[in-house]
What we know:
Strand content: 5-15%
Order of helices and strands: HHEHHEHHEHE
Strand order of the largest sheet: 1-2-4-3
Helix content: 25-40%
Distance between the termini: 15 Å
Shape: globular
Number of helices: 7
Number of domains: 1
Amino acid sequence: MKPEADITKLGFLRDLSLELGATAAKVIPADEIVVENRVVLKCRVGCKEYGKTLMCPPYAPSVDEFQKILSEYSYALVFKIKSHAEATAEVAKLLSKDKNDPSLTDEMNEKIDAFWTSWKAEKKELVKNIRALEKAAMSGGYPLALGFTTGSCVICDECNVEEICTHPTEARYSAQAVGINVLQTLENAGIPIPYPFKKNPESFGLVLIA
Length: 210
């Protein structure tokens, strides 16, 4: 366990995350981040975005690589935000369908599109806030601070995985892509994300601090 006094010194990052819209935030020892191989396996068999963005598997660092990287950090700021994108039980059911499902009507597709438009806009704002927290940490004496977002990258409408990232200063790896069990990490930190969500989903951000 890292000294509590050192964690207290990082309170300015927690406070900034709350100012930027987080509903809860906490600085934890980096070794309390839960990393599991099965998280990346879930990416491979359960995510429609697998292989479509450089910020996700198979292009992201492997679990083994990330665990070595994580061992070089002392702390992490973890925080969550509540989305304004509403997903009622009806919309949540629609989101589980394939976009080419013939049973989807124009009205249903409009509801799906409205949700994803709102969700992606908030995801872009989340990445912007993560970069702001990185900069604050760097200015505070932690030059190797590095942020992670959640879910697939939304910086570009379509990622050209055959080239290097065209927005390297903006894009950040997905926490799940490197094996972080987001739900368990937040549960252990005392700021859990309800799952499955009732109406408004919640997102997660993380900044590693050396």
